[in-house]
Amino acid sequence: MRARPHRLQRVTLVLVALGLVVAMASPVLAADRLMRGHQEALTRNRHGLGLTFGWAGATGFAYRHYFGNTLVEANLLPLVTDQGDWLAIMMGVSGAHYMLVWQRMRGSVLPRTTALRAVVKATTFFSRDATVLNETPAEPNCVGTGCATTLSKDAKLENLTSLAGGFGFEFGAVLEPGFSMAVDMMFTVLWDEEGFQAVLPLPYLGVLYNW
């Protein structure tokens, strides 16, 4: 009769061990299924149109093209004010690859499809400002009307370029036609016309309709 508790303890330990094995094996099996899907063409989309938002030229109207689980995206936004005296162009190109995809049951409040993606991006912001007035002072020893201070208008050029890489998530219509939103966090290297500026982790956002 005294052996029963020991037997119960052994059975309990065996059941706990089996539970731990199943618990540890389930993510592995799930990841294995996801990785097999990763080798297949998960998405049925081929094109995408929308808007992107980000640093150093990543903001603008965007078009993307799918190659299976990989996509290439380009954005462009020209800006003109003061009758053309101020001109700016934001443009960039990026590539992304869907690494893992999760799908929820229909009826969930959260987006049905979520994808983990690896992203690289290159952007540039160029501006030309011809509204700046350069003041040339008169000579200190000069006398007469010809020595007055003169103003001239020269275009001021600025440029900010970036290279970025990181990871993000895309929610919504990743595998089928519809709207999706991508949120990426990437380490971004910045240069301007004077040279290297900084390395920063910066967020990027995109909202597109895919089909």
Question: Could you characterize what this model shows?
Answer:
- Residues 20-38 have low confidence and may be disordered.
- The protein is of the alpha+beta class and 211 residues long.
- The strands form two sheets. An eight-stranded antiparallel barrel has the order 1-2-3-4-5-8-9-10. It has a two-stranded antiparallel ribbon with strand order 6-7.
- Helix content is 17%, strand content 56%.
- It is elongated.
- It has one helix spanning 3-38, and strands spanning 47-53, 60-67, 70-81, 86-103, 113-129, 133-136, 150-153, 156-172, 178-192, 195-210.
Describe, in short, the structure shown.
The chain has one helix at about 5-40; strands spanning about 45-55, 60-65, 70-80, 85-105, 115-130, 135, 150-155, 155-170, 180-190, 195-210. It has about 210 residues and is α+β, with helices and mostly antiparallel strands. A hairpin with a 6-residue loop joins strand 1 (about 45-55) and strand 2.
Q: How are the secondary structure elements laid out?
A:
Layout lengths: L2 H36 L8 E7 L6 E8 L2 E12 L4 E18 L9 E17 L3 E4 L13 E4 L2 E17 L5 E15 L2 E16 L1
Antiparallel strand pairs: 1-2, 1-10, 2-3, 3-4, 4-5, 5-8, 6-7, 8-9, 9-10
